Here is the input.
Amino acid sequence: MKGKLMGLLLGAALMIAPCAVRAEIVPAQLPDAHIARSVMIDGIEVTVDADVYGADVDKVQAYQVKKQDLGKTPEAKVDLSAWIGDEEIVRRTEPEENDIRFETASGAQVQLADYMHSFRGAGCDRLDGARLGVMMTYTWADNTSLYPETPQIAQLSGMSVSEAVQKLAPIMEQLDVTLVDEPFDGIRLGLDELNEATRMHLEEGVAPNQTLTEGWTAEDEHYCLRLPMLYHGLRIMPWQENTKKLDFDNTPDAYAYAWITRQGVEKLVMDFVPGEEKAVGDAFVPISAEEALDACERELKKQEKNWGIGERAEILNPHISRMWLGYVMMPDHVDKSRLSTNVFRATPAWLMSIYYDNSEQKPMGNASWQKNVAIDARTGESLLSW
Here is the structure.
C-alpha cells in the first residue's frame, strides 16, 4: 500500500507541478513492484529478478529540452558563492562562445558553458596527484562506462556518503537540478588508499609531466561519486549510449560526477544539465514493466552489426535486477545537417541493465559487464543500438 501511495503521489507531481521536485538532493526511491521471470534476448536466456521503480506512475510526458545555457553573464543568473564560497573572483574569461570561466586567488575555477558545467577547487590539483596510482590500484578510470550492479562504497570516518552528497545541494539549487542520494558508481579514498596509490605510482615511475603527491592527511580523504539526476520526477538514463538512429549519435552522460572531501566539493563535472523545455505531444499512459520485457524479446534480436551480448564470448549468469521508468535524452535533430549536441528529446522509457560475466574478459575494477537497454514507454521500441 505504501508503494502504491508513493506512486500515486509521484504521478500527481508529474502532472500537476513537475518542476516542484527539482533542485534538491532526494533519498533513493523505494521499489513499487517486483518481477521474477526470464526473457530470451539475443538468443540468450536472461533471468529477471528485478525491483521495479515507477510501476505506479499513471502518465508520462515527452519534452524537447535544451542543455542549460546561462549565457554570457551567468553570474547574473546564479550565485557563484555556491561553488566558491566567499572567495573573491580575480579572473574572468569570456571567449567568443558561451564558455565563461571564473578563477579565485586560491586557484578554484568555475566553468559555466552550455556543453559542460564544471568546478575545480583549490585542492583539486593535490588530489590529482594520486590519480595515476588510484587508477592502477582500482583499475578505475574517470571515463569508465562499466558500472557496478550494487556499488559498495566504504564509509569515511566522520563523513558518510550521504553527508558528502549533501555538500552538493547549494550548487544543485543554483542549477535547478535534483540529484538522487544513491551513487551508481564510486569509491572512497581514505589514507590507506591514498598511500597505496602513491606507492603504486612510485613503483610505476613518475613521468616528467606527472605530479606525485605524498604526505597525505585526513583532510585529503574523499569520495569520487557518480550520482543520478531526476527530470520531472523520473530518473534520467545516466550512461552514454549509441541510439538506433545513427552511428555516433549518442545520448549524453547525464549525471553528476563529484570529488568531495570533508571541507567540501573539490571537483564537479556535469556534461548535461536540463534547461529550456517544451512539452511534445500529449501525456500518455506508459507501457508496463512486463510489456517492456516482452518488447525486449521482440526487439533485441541479433543485428547485422552483431553488437549483442552473445557475440564471441561465453555469457555467464545474465540477469536484470532493476527496472526504472525514466527518461532517455535522445538527440533531437533540429538542424538536420548535423548531429545535435545541445537539443534533446526527453523520451519516457523503461531503463534496465543486463549484467553478466564474460568468460574471455575481466571487468574493470568492481564493475560487471553490462548491456544497457531502453524501451520506449509509448511504442515498445528499443531506443539504443544493440
User: Anything to note?
Assistant: The CA atoms of residues 67 and 274 lie 5 Å apart. Residues 2-16 form the longest helix (15 residues). The longest strand covers residues 315-331. The two ends are 37 Å apart (CA to CA).
